[in-house]
Amino acid sequence: MRRPKITRRRILFLVVAWLLVIAGSLTITALRVRWANLKELSAQFPEWKTPGRGSRVIVFAPHCDDESVGAGGLIRQAAAGGAQVWVVLVTNGDGFWYAAFRNRRALVVRPRYYVDFGYRRQKESFAALRELGVARGHVITLGYPDRGLLAMWTTNWHAPYTSPYTRDPRSPYDDSFTPRAVYTGEQFLSDLKKLLRKVDPTDIYIPHPNDQHSDHWATSAFVTEALYDLGWLERRNVGLYLVHRGDWPVPQGLHPDDPLAPPAKLVGMDTSWYDYPLDADCVRAKKAAVAMFRSQVGVVRFLRSFVRRNELFGARPCEARVASASIRLDGRCGDWRGVEPIARDPADDGLVTHSRPGADLVGLYAAEDRDRLYLRVRVRGTVTRTPTYEIQLHPLGRSEGTTVLAVRRGSPPPAGWSAAFGSRDIELSCPIDRWKGTPLLAAAAARISWYSVDRTAYRLIVP
What we know:
Layout: H1 8-39, E1 56-61, H2 66-80, E2 84-91, H3 97-104, H4 111-131, E3 139-144, H5 149-154, H6 185-199, E4 203-207, H7 214-230, E5 237-241, E6 272-277, H8 280-290, H9 300-304, E7 310-315, E8 323-324, E9 343-344, H10 351-355, E10 361-368, E11 372-379, E12 388-395, E13 403-407, E14 418-421, E15 425-431, E16 440-448, E17 451-455, E18 459-461
Parallel strand pairs: 1-2, 1-4, 2-3, 4-5, 8-10
Antiparallel strand pairs: 6-7, 9-10, 10-11, 11-15, 12-13, 12-16, 14-15, 16-17, 16-18
């Protein structure tokens, strides 16, 4: 039999066919996710109560505008009802290159231009919060680095992180809570505990730990640690709000008469979702507040998507139990049967994770016996040599920062740890002595080269 002749036309045909298959798969995934999110709009959820007179409410916003889009209606109605409302702007959102470029009309955006842009974003939040009933004196600005909070959590607990935008390892803003605050996780945590003691809040609002923006995830983790250190984690009301989660909210754009519902993949997991109705005056005030963010070129439609007849808040148990089990480190995972994940993660709910099933995280598990601590990461696809899988263990009440266990098929495990790889699982183990009795915020992540593909929510465990 004669082999078919390989020609340029045949190669081009095969490449085009392959691209069409990929494009079709991504399109089907996008439509499936959107349809599931649209169906969720008819779901019913219990009602979240407005903090009343005598309450002290604090809302943590990773960037200027998150407070208004995520909790602007609650801020307005709580303030109108007599509650004291405080807002903390963690960063000034100064790392938006295109918007900073438009702000100065300069071909090269210099570090001081990013700082100028950060001040502009502050002013927009101040104006928005006036619309929502919060005076300037109740807005605290911290001045930490835009898109740098996760690094401060994982790698820069003690060593200063330098912002790639302002080129500064300290806050360049003269209104920061701590003047010239150094960009370390240790300093950020210190600021959080100081301001929490100052406000002494009854109600605390933080980003949901399944928010896909790294600054939102890290803000949530840092505040959780601060609450734990203060002994407030189980004693104060903590509400979770969501801003970034793929193709959400749906439909996009200004739809003030439509409801806001959680992404379908986050329903039925580990979060109890609550509906927070807004009256007509509150919807108008929130619309006016969102309109203040004129610097957000290209994302105005997204911000307006949160002007709905309700807002959405979640409650989630922070602590998970470490199971007692007899584990053999062989990658087969049959001996994990009956061990529930400490953190579940939505699978195949976005275009990036759909195209990288080996980096699409499904769950993080923890188990122990008398001598060893065992951790397991499960993915949707097949574990290959391409992704790097990370387990982050952050001890609470200590000063050492996060231990990041980075493993990859075909590479040796971190010093002091053993590892085994299965078809869809990565197992790690170490002597339990180092961690015994230590509360840990644990999470998993998967990246390809420098790009973060997926990240689980964090969970508090005590081996």
